[in-house]
Amino acid sequence: MTRECNLAGGINLGQGICDLPTPPEVLDEASKAVLADKSVYSKYEGIDELREALADKLHTHNKLDVDPDSDIVVTVGSTGAFASTIQGLFNPGDELMVFEPYYGYHLNTMRVGGVKPNFVTLEPPNWEFSAEKLEAALTPKTRGIVVNTPTNPSGKVFTREEMNTIAWFCQKHDLIAITDEIYEYILYDGREHISLASLPGMYERTVTISGFSKTFSITGWRIGYAVAPPELSEAIGLVNDLFYVCAATPLQHGVARGMARLDPSYYAEMAADYEKKRDMFCAALTEAGLTPYVPAGAYYVLADISPLGCDTAREGAMKILEEAGVASVPGSAFYQSEAGESLTRFCYAKDWDTLEAAAERLSRLGG
Ligand SMILES: Cc1ncc(COP(=O)(O)O)c(C=O)c1O
């Protein structure tokens, strides 16, 4: 869609690229680290300062008490953490449960590792599932479950009750949970972020993955991390070393020191800003006749495009691009079933001018 968007001179709300400004404190500390020539490889598990800062943050924000020396691996983005987890902990032929709509990288990384997905479909409008659905998707080869909260693309935030169900299910069937929490600071309407690993009996069987791409708008820096007990984190660290050696050393310093300097209000203000953007953009979608499934977190919205009368999601997304000049990602990218064919996903992590221009253009749909 990006190529088609460029050709059509459209506004690209397709890719999940967040082009908002990085906090100056983080930029300043990274620049200082580059100029101070922090240029050599770090330990494969990351610099001590960052792992210590992460342990503090995990204590206060995620309600996890972890040993920064043995339980944290700093990775090349959360994508690197997920890839290292799949390669380090699973074998070809293993199966992992995945909720759909899913994040494509999860699926493709599993495929590269020969790990088969067992899909559990979340039902709109609230993207719900039941314990029965989990049981129905389980096979004798299932070894774990992938949970992404807040979720790309649906914006779902798993409730405590749902997390309890997943925790119960994992313990009942001796499964490993992999949680992708990259949008952990972007929640709306007073919702709380719950880390699955913080529930009773879950730390020992959970790999908690997150990173700074979204929180600090530094998608190109590639700083993420995996948190798990030593029995799991050791294998993750070994793969991280083999694949990547380490995350960029000066940028690790930038993030660690930037975290220390940032005012704690930064995180809530960022979420509040996204919430205003969500409200404005969802109102524009409704106005344009494309019913949004209003997200509870993250910065994407799935919209129902059936009123456009197209046969496929791709056709629908192309129609929106041609008539309104706004690019989105066809819902089929997030589903193995037909369910995605009536959906398209917009990303609203854009500056206000761009988003307002996109909203104005959407009003031309069908005109
Ligand atoms: C669910 C999810 N996980 C991970 C990522 C990528 O994160 P990172 O830049 O830390 O690799 C994205 C980016 O779109 C995402 O949506």
Automatic annotation (TrEMBL):
It comes from the Bacteria. Transmembrane segments: none annotated. Its EC number is 2.6.1.-. Its cofactor is pyridoxal 5'-phosphate. Keywords: Aminotransferase, Pyridoxal phosphate, Transferase. Residues 10-362 form the Aminotransferase class I/classII large domain. GO terms for cellular component: cytoplasm. GO terms for molecular function: kynurenine-oxoglutarate transaminase activity; pyridoxal phosphate binding. Belongs to the class-I pyridoxal-phosphate-dependent aminotransferase family. PANTHER family: FI04487P. This is Aminotransferase. It comes from Persicimonas caeni.
